[in-house]
Design brief:
mainly alpha; two-stranded parallel ribbon; 66% helix
């Protein structure tokens, strides 16, 4: 008796193919589950490297070594990218973010759906002022983990820089609800400043500085700088002997003077009155027309 007839052989082939696909997928998933994934205490936290230049260099060297030994270790790649982004803020070496980008691209080729790598990619895009891309990544991460406070910080920062204030404020509110702390206090401070509540902004930024862990000196320095920069003119007057170049971009949006919240005519007058004779450069993007942007910059910094 024939067990397989033309009418039964096709379904059997389909079933066998499906089984083979399931087995293959399970094998791939098993391999993924066995991948190494390095973890380490958060930078600046207890029992971790501090966020000084030297501390960050140690973390970078350690994770570079791990990634070289095990390229499939996505955890080490994320830790490396984090340290590189922070070191960029400390040293001003923007080339470090390019290295971080390559590291994350490699990690995401290895594991495209890895949440930690995706979220770090959003932070990287923020540091590179690729705000629309950062917002898109953060939205993707929110769909994956809607209760991650850190991601709401990335989302809010990105939305703020592209001018979507309400969405940014909503993200910061949610971040604060999920995890009050230094990072969320800093975002609340910026939101209050934009809403005209300067006293509340300074109070929140001071809370951010106070809540920072002792080893996170990079973050503490940034928070204290933000408190000082609440009054740009006063900061310029106190720093005038140390200025070699003034780089100009309005906020939010990083466009020419007159497109954001800073009174650059008053800043220019303060510089002129202080006797500053150094370089003043427009370091941003035109809001629309390049020639109009340059003319607005020229007008803001031409003494009356």
């Amino acid at each position: 008796m024939r067990l397989l007839t033309p009418s039964t052989s096709i379904p059997c082939v389909i079933i066998a193919s499906v089984i083979a696909m399931v087995v293959s997928a399970n094998i791939r998933e098993g391999r993924r589950d066995r991948r190494p994934f390095a973890t380490a205490p958060a930078l600046g936290g207890f029992a971790a490297s501090s966020t000084t230049r030297e501390g960050l260099a140690r973390r970078i060297a350690e994770m570079e070594s791990r990634v070289a030994a095990q390229p499939e270790d996505v955890g080490a790649a994320v830790l490396l990218a984090d340290a590189l982004i922070r070191q960029t803020r400390v040293t001003g070496n923007a080339g470090l973010t390019l290295h971080a980008e390559k590291v994350l691209q490699t990690a995401l080729r290895e594991d495209p759906g890895n949440y930690e790598a995706l979220r770090m990619q959003g932070s990287l895009y923020l540091s590179q002022h690729r705000f629309a891309e950062a917002a898109a990544i953060a939205e993707k991460c929110r769909a994956m983990r809607p209760d991650d406070s850190v991601n709401y910080g990335v989302l809010g920062d990105a939305q703020l820089e592209v001018g979507n204030y309400e969405q940014a404020f909503d993200a910061f509110d949610r971040m604060m609800q999920l995890r009050p702390g230094a990072a969320s206090y800093a975002r609340v401070a910026y939101a209050r400043e934009l809403q005209g509540n300067l006293r509340g902004a300074l109070q929140s930024m001071q809370l951010a500085a106070d809540a920072s862990e002792g080893g996170d000196v990079e973050a503490i320095a940034w928070y204290h700088a933000q408190v000082g920069e609440g009054n740009l003119i006063d900061l310029l007057r106190r720093s005038i002997d140390y200025l070699g170049e003034v780089q100009v971009a309005d906020v939010p949006g990083r466009c020419e003077p007159g497109t954001g919240e800073i009174n650059y005519s008053a800043v220019a007058a303060a510089l002129h009155a202080s006797g500053y004779a150094g370089v003043v450069a427009f370091e941003g993007w035109p809001a629309d027309d390049s020639y109009v942007a340059v003319e607005r910059f020229r007008t803001a910094f031409t003494p009356l």
